[in-house]
Amino acid sequence: MASYQARQRDPLFDQDTQAVLERRGKELVGGLLVLLGVLASMMLFSYHPEDPSWMAASDEPVQNWLGRIGAGIASPLFVIVGHGAWLLPAALVIWGARMITHRGEERLAGRIIFFPIAVAVAAVYAALLVPGDQWGQAFGLGGHFGDMIAGTLLGIVPVSGTVGLKLLSLVLAVAMLAIGGFVLGFTKPELRAITRFMWLGTVAAYVGVTNLLGKGASASVLGAKAAADRARQRRVEAAERAAELAAWEEQQAMAAGWAPEMEPAPSARPSLLSRIRRPIEPEYDAYDPTPELFEIEPDWSEQSAPSEDRIRARIAQAVQSRKAAPIAPDYAPDEPQLVAFDAPESFATPEAEAPRAPASVLAAVAKRLARAPRQPQVLHNEPPLRAQPQLRAEPPLHAKPRYMPQASAPAPESAPLPEAYVSEFEGIEEPHLTAAQQIALESQNDDGWDWTHPEYQGFDGFEDDPLEMHTDHFYAGEPDSFDETGAAQWVEEDTVPEIPAAARGLDRQVIKQSSEAKRVVQPAKKPIAPSRRAMEEAQPALAFDAPKAAPYEPPPLSLLTNPMTIQRHQLSDEALEENARMLETVLDDYGVKGEIVSVRPGPVVTMYELEPAPGLKASRVIGLADDIARSMSALSARVSTVPGRSVIGIELPNDHREKVVLREILSARDFGDTNMKLPLALGKTIGGEPIVTNLAKMPHLLIAGTTGSGKSVAINTMILSLLYRLTPEECRLIMIDPKMLELSVYDGIPHLLSPVVTDPKKAVVALKWVVSEMEERYRKMSKMGVRNIEGYNGRVKESLAKGEMFKRTVQTGFYEETGEPIFETEEFQPKPFPYIVVIVDEMADLMMVAGKEIEACIQRLAQMARASGIHLIMATQRPSVDVITGTIKANFPTRISFQVTSKIDSRTILGEQGAEQLLGMGDMLYMAGGGKITRCHGPFVSDEEVEEIVNHLKSFGPPEYMSGVVDGPDDDVVSDIDAVLGLNTGGNTNGEDALYDQAVAIVIKDRKCSTSYIQRKLGIGYNKAARLVEQMEDEGIVSAANHVGKREILVPEQ
Q: Is 920 annotated as a binding residue?
C-alpha cells in the first residue's frame, strides 16, 4: 500500500508577526496587571473595619472605594495577614511593569509560586511591629496569622522577650526583603543598578542642597560686610561733624570774649510730643542731669531734615539778639531765662522756613528701633500739633524709643541750663485736646495704672543705656495753645505701649520665665456646643405666639436642673505639681521607678500619667493601688494602663467632687444633633467631656453595681435619654422591675408597650413575647428582602410616600367538594417597626425564679434581636457567676460596672479588676465592644425631675398597650417558642416529652410507678421523673398516690 506524505499547512502569520503579536499580548496583560494592582492598592488603602463583609455584619454604609466587593476582599486579607496583604498590589504592579517593558517576564512562572511564602513572612514581621493609635483592631499589624506565628517564634527563641523581639524582627526584615525581592523578579544586576541609581540621586541631592546653602551664606556675608561698612562710615562722619562743631564753638567763644553763663529766661511748658531727640553732642560738666525720659519719636516722613548750616544760623541769630540787649530784664523766680551764644552771620536763614529734624536724629532713631525688641503697635489718639516761633532751653535729649508715659503731673520749675544748650528747632505748638480728652488727662495720676493690662505684660524693666534722656517730670501744654491740626503724622508706626509714671521707681530687672515644661495639662475650658433644640428653647417666646397643639412633644430641657447652678472646683497648678511630686515619692518608696509626665485634672478625679522605667511591669504598679491610696490619704485609687500609650494612669479623687447633671449632656450638640438611632447619655469622661453612645450599635447593655453605687440613677438617665430623643412611634419600652420600686414611676407614659412588669413569672411571659415578636419581624423582613429594621422602615416610608399598599395571602376556608384550602389576597397599609428596648432593673431576682427560661430568652434575644430593632438593658446588683453566666457575658459585649465589693465581682463583669476602687454615686467603668475600658461619671437625676417629665408625657394621653406582652402568646406559639429556646428537649407536641413513651412502657411492663423508680430506669433527674409521673397521672395511666405514696397501674397488663 503506497503511503502519501500529508502536506503541512502554512502558518497564518509569519514569525515576525507572531513575535509582534506575542509582545503586544504581553504588554496588554501587563497593563491589566498594573490596573489590578492600582485597584488592589485603593481597596487596601480604603479598608475600614466597620464595612459590611462576609466576615462582619454591619449597618454602616460602605466606605471602601471599591464598594462591597472591595470591602468583602479587603476584610479577610487584613484579618488573616494584616499589612502583609500589601505585597499583592506590589506584585501585580511590578510584574505588570515587567511585562510592559519586557524585562524579566520569563521569570514570572518560576518566581510567583513563592508569593504565599513572602506574604507569610511579611505578616509575621508586621506582627512584631507596635501598632499606632489609629489601629483599632483586636489583632496586630500582621493579622491573626502573623500574631500566631510571631507568638510561637517568641516562645521558641531562648532569650529574653525584648532581645528576642528585636533579634527576630531583624531576621524577619532581612528574610522579607530577600524573599520579596526574589518573588518580585529582581536579579543581582538589577539590584546593583537600583543601588547605583539611589546612590547617585543622594549625591546629586546633597550637592544641590550644598550649593543652595553656599549661595545663601555668601549673600549673607556680603550683606553683613556692606552693613558694617555703612555703619563705620556713619560713625566717621558723625565724629567729624562733632569735632568741627566743637572747634567752631570754641573759636567763636574766644573771639567774642565771653563764657557760657546761666540767666533766667521765661519759658513755656512744652508738651510731651514736642520733645525731639537731639544728635549726640559733646558732654559738658556744667549741667544738672535729670531722670531719664522715655517717649515716642515723631514721624518725620513728611518733612525733610534741616542742614547744619540752618542750625548754626539760628544759633547766630540768638547770639546777636543777646548782644543787642545785654541787660536782662527782671523775671519771675519760676520763669527761667533762655540764653544763646553768638554765631557768624553767614549762617543766617529766613525765619519763615519750617523746622526740620536733622539727619543724625533720624539715623539715631533708626538705629535704636533696630536694636529695640519689637512690641505690638499701639496707636494713641494724641492731640494735633502745630509749629510756632518759640525757643526752649533743654538738656541734650538722648531718647530711648521704647515706652512713653503720658503727661499727668504739673511741671516743676526748670533747672538752670548752660548757654550752650539751645533748641535747634523753633517751637512746636502744643497739641489741641478735646473736652473729653482734657477731662481724661486731668483725671489720671501716677498711682492709677493697671499693671495687669495686656499692654504692660511685655514690660521687662528699664535697661541701662548711655543714650538715655533724663527728666523727672513731664510738661503739660496749655489748653489755649492747641488747635485742630491732625496728629496722625506724629504717631510712629513702630510705637510700643506706654509705661506710666508709676513705673519710674521700679528696679531695673529682667523677669525670666521658667523654661521647664509644665506637667499639668488643664482640660480645655471650651463650652460644650449646644444643640439646635437647646438654642431654640433658650430663645424667648412672644406672649401672643400661641403654641400649636402637637400630638406629641418631647419634654423641655427646662424640667432638668440647670448646670449653671452647679459649683465648679478647680485645683491650682502649684497644688497639682506638689501632688505629682508627692506621688513620685510614694512610688519610689515602693520601689517603682518612673516619672509623672502629665497631670490631667477632671471634675471628679485627677489622672497622673506615670512613665515607668524600662523593664517595669504594669501589673506591679496596678497591684499597689490600695497602698498608693493610703499613702496619698485618698479615698481610693485606680491604676490602669492607658490604651494606645506607654504610660500608666493613676487616678486619685479630688477633694471637692463636681456634680454632673443630665441637662448639660442632653443640651450638648453631641446628643441633640446626632444621627444615632438610640442615643444614651452616659455622663462625662475624666476630662469633663460628654459621652454619648448608641444603643443600636452596642447592641445590648449589661450593668452591674452594688446598692448605692448609682446603678438605678444611671438606668433613669438612659430612659430619659430615649424619652427626650424618640417619639412613641419610633421607640417602645418594656420595663421589668422585680423590686417594684425603681421603674414603677414610668407607668402610664405613651412609650410603654405594657404596664411595668413587677411579677417575676410575668417577666418570663414578657420575654417570650419579645422572642415571638422578634421571630415575626424576621419573617416579614425576609419576605420583603431586607436585612434589618432600617431597610424595612425605609421600604415602608417609600411605599407610603408613593401611596402603595402591601399585599398578603390569607386562608379564608376550604372547598366543600375537594377539601382544599381557599386563599385570598388582601391589601393593607404597612406600618414601620418601632425600636423596642427591654429594660430589666434586677436580673438576679428573675434568675432565682426561672433561671433556665430567663437565660434561654436572654440568650436568644442577645444573639438575634439586633437586626430586628430589639435591644436589652439589664442591670443587677449581684454580679456573680450564677447570675452573669458565661452565656450572658458572651452575648453582652458592652458592659458598665459601677462600684462593686470585690475584685472577683469586677473580673466577673469586666474581665479585670478596678471596679472595686470606684467612688460610687455614679462613678463607672464603661467597656465598649472592643474591650476598651473608659472611666466616666454618670449624671444625677432626682426623683422630682423624673416625676415632672413623666407628668409631661402623660399629658398626651394614655399609652396604647399590647395585651400579648403580659398575657403571653397562644399555646401553639408558646410551644414553638419553647422548642426554639430548647426548653422542650424532645420537641414532641401536646406537652409530651421524648422520654414519656419509654416511661409508659416501663410502667406497663414492670407494673411499678414511682418517681425514684422512673429516675433510676431512665437515668434522668428527679424533677424530670416527677414531671413524667404527673403527666401519666393526668393521662389516666396511673392513679394518684395513696396515703403511703404508692400508685396503682390503671392500664391492663399486656
A: no
Does residue 989 belong to any structural domain of this protein? yes
Is residue 646 marked as binding? no
- Domain extent, residue 704, equals 662-799+835-954
- Per-residue pLDDT tens digits for 927-977: 987 778 889 999 999 999 999 999 999 988 888 888 778 776 666 666 667
C-alpha cell at 822: 381557599
The amino acid at residue 299 is D
Residue 624 and residue 764 in one domain: no
CB distance 744 to 712 below 8 Å: no
- Do residue 755 and residue 877 come from a single domain? yes
Please tell me whether residues 282 and 243 are part of one structural domain: no
Residue 597 grid coordinates: 509626665
Residues 204 and 159 in one domain: no
Both 485 and 406 in one domain: the answer is yes
Does the annotation place 869 within a ligand binding site?
no
> Order of strands, edge to edge, in the sheet holding 690-694?
690-694, 679-685, 933-937, 923-927, 894-897, 701-704, 870-876, 835-840, 731-736
Residue 33, all three cell numbers? 496587571
- Which of 287, 286, 281, 279 has its CA nearest to residue 243? 281
Q: How many domains does the chain have?
A: 6
708 appears as a binding residue in the annotation: yes
1012 marked among binding-site residues: no
CA dihedral (683, 689, 695, 698) in degrees, to 10, reads -110
- For residue 854, is it within any domain? yes
Based on the fold, state whether residues 227 and 352 are members of the same structural domain.
no
In a domain, 975, yes or no: no
Task: Supply φ then ψ for residue 829, to 5 degrees.
Answer: -85, 125
Q: Is residue 679 part of a domain?
A: yes
* Mean pLDDT on 465-488: 40
The reply to whether 723 and 794 lie within a common domain is yes
pLDDT in tens, 242-300: 888 888 777 776 765 544 444 444 444 444 333 333 334 444 344 444 444 444 444 44
Give the per-residue pLDDT at 7. 55
Say whether 826 sits in a helix, a strand or coil.
strand
Do the annotations mark residue 709 as ligand-binding? yes
- The reply to whether 705 sits in an annotated binding site is yes
Is 223 annotated in some ligand binding site? no
Note the pLDDT tens digit of each residue in 78-98. 888 998 899 999 999 998 998
Same structural domain, 891 and 911: yes
Whether this model's pTM surpasses 0.70: no
